[in-house]
Amino acid sequence: MLPEQGVAADGEVRVVHDGPLAWVTLSHPGKLNAMSRAMWRHLREVFTALPTVEGLRCVVLRGEGGHFCAGGDISEYPGFRYAPDSLRAFHEGDVWGGLQAILDCDVPVVAQIEGACMGAGVEISACCDLRIAGQSAKFGAPIAKLGFPMAPREAALVAGAVGAATAREMLLEAAVFGADSMQQRGFLNRVLADAEVAHEAAATARRIAALAPQAARLNKQTLRRLAASTVVPADAYAYADSEEHREGISAFLGKRRPSFTL
Amino acid sequence: MLPEQGVAADGEVRVVHDGPLAWVTLSHPGKLNAMSRAMWRHLREVFTALPTVEGLRCVVLRGEGGHFCAGGDISEYPGFRYAPDSLRAFHEGDVWGGLQAILDCDVPVVAQIEGACMGAGVEISACCDLRIAGQSAKFGAPIAKLGFPMAPREAALVAGAVGAATAREMLLEAAVFGADSMQQRGFLNRVLADAEVAHEAAATARRIAALAPQAARLNKQTLRRLAASTVVPADAYAYADSEEHREGISAFLGKRRPSFTL
Amino acid sequence: MLPEQGVAADGEVRVVHDGPLAWVTLSHPGKLNAMSRAMWRHLREVFTALPTVEGLRCVVLRGEGGHFCAGGDISEYPGFRYAPDSLRAFHEGDVWGGLQAILDCDVPVVAQIEGACMGAGVEISACCDLRIAGQSAKFGAPIAKLGFPMAPREAALVAGAVGAATAREMLLEAAVFGADSMQQRGFLNRVLADAEVAHEAAATARRIAALAPQAARLNKQTLRRLAASTVVPADAYAYADSEEHREGISAFLGKRRPSFTL
């Protein structure tokens, strides 16, 4: 699958408008929509612009080709993850910039979740107001296999959305969960047959679009203030140049099992 | 149904004592116990007085006639909702005054929930220690149909009790939930056949009444301190005189669908 | 069952190492591993030492003889509970010292929960990262029968782990829950047939041991910071010499029903 433009080689975040609704699509063909740095920046641009669109009432956020988002684009990681400064710039700048833009969007956002919803996928969907998933969707953040922890703000976001017990299971055991389990754990609002997810997300968006938009904006502002702010320690990214970090990413890219018996 | 006294025309909150137990009943006949301003003030008086009653061990809070509480008494809303000052006085004075009095009651409070438990009903039951509901009870806060948001303290209370995901579903999609779903979401402690709810609430109150009362008081004080305080922004009620707010309430009172396509 | 050494008479906390894993066992034969003051101090020593063990990757915390822990060792209570200073020293020193040591352990801790998991058992397991229980395990904190409240830090810990609604049910109604219910309430990560719990706990520990240890440590540090700190009021232990407190403990030790109709 050849990209037709330079941008699409690194994936992209597309927007389609349809009256009071907007569809935002994470697209990285061949990589289950894994988030590249370019996509994180697109995500921020898209969600910074959306609240200014006249008459917009609801956004549906989804992934292309039957998957939401499989995580970060690990092929890019050797380029910036092994130095604290560039690692911090990635997490606090690119990633959190994209996530914060969704959180700050005063227009309601519905996550339409199909297939893989891992790592960055869990984080992105955690920023949405409603989460609607198909039966076969899978959720987790198995970065302990990659030799690195979740960044502080991202961990606070995920723990707030999935609960502390599930966050520890995801992060410390690299556990992966099905959709029914994630509904039971309070993360998903609704689980449907895979073939019905897109229809239900659209129907939900239309229901929201018929309700009072100023009330939605004020409710989102109120609920946003309830989330505690997270302090990022000065040494949060000091692990950048560690053997463990390099081993986890190298093993993944080398298609071998990592060895953490340092 | 003619009220026999002036007070009852706006509904009332009644108390019956039975040894160590007290039954508090929300009563607004013909309106599914919708809370009038008079009822919010009664509620505050009742729950301010209860903790001083010698020998009181447990309170059961319920609604009259097979319903807990269907919300606020919307017929009163045009009288005060369209100006920020009177709107603030309603939410921060009457409503929060009643809710805070329940929260501040050191004697355990059991909510016996039958039928409609909407808006103010969710808020009132969220202030109780235990929530026991009948199978056919319904829960929601569909005020987005009425063109206004939930007040900040009330939203923090509800989100803390139903969880952030459910709060967004209630407020942004105007979703309504059954009792089994609300138990699964962690709001209800117990769900029973409708005919058994009153019996179970009374049995629970008697169980609590046999336990150590000082321990209950101290536990309630400790758990109360865990709830974060909410800051109410200066402009929280600036929406009072908006078209959307007027349209939502006018449409409801005029028995027509609101049009929010401003 | 005669203890062979002086220490074991008051119970003990034992540690066995097996390569990257450690098994910590609460042991108080004949008392369902009820926590004595000596055991709380052992617990602190054990979990203070564990993170310094070279190559340790995961800890399994369990009880001896088919039970996790039935609570505190009530036979000791008349010796120190009826004066505020010694009561405070017990809760803030011995109990919280043990619990904080588990919370501060940067190595992942898996709770293997069989049989009774009551009071201190709920608190200890609440400090673990993952909780795996057998079908017949029982959970609660029925100290309202003993005439005393949960200490502030312990109540905050438990409410954070079981949720506010369940914490109130445990503390105000002395409710006891089965394992399936505690999984539904978000406290337990996994429930298995009793005979499979030990195997699953060991398998989980081995899974964790194969993952990146520095990432685990950093994730635990991040998640630990999300827990709000608890202020202990100056008068938190003023109830020590109350009739109710004495009556609850005396009745338990005298094998009679307490009378709280003061």
Main CATH class of chain A: Alpha Beta
What is the helix tally of chain A? 10
What structural class should be given to the helix and strand makeup of chain A? alpha/beta
Strand order of the largest sheet of chain A: 1-2-3-4-6-9
Number of structural units classed as domains of chain A: 1
C-alpha end-to-end distance of chain A = 40 Å
Question: Biggest protein-protein interface?
Answer: A-B, 29 and 37 residues
* Element order of chain A: H for helix, E for strand: HEEHEHEEHEEHHEHEHHH
CATH level 4 superfamily of chain A: 2-enoyl-CoA Hydratase, Chain A, domain 1
In CATH, the architecture of chain A is Alpha-Beta Complex
Uncertain runs of chain A are 1-7
Report the count of strand segments of chain A: 9
Assembly status: homotrimer
The largest β sheet of chain A comes out as: 6 strands, mixed
Range of helix content of chain A: 40-55%
Q: What is the fold-level CATH name, i.e. the topology of chain A?
A: 2-enoyl-CoA Hydratase, Chain A, domain 1
Strand content of chain A: 15-25%
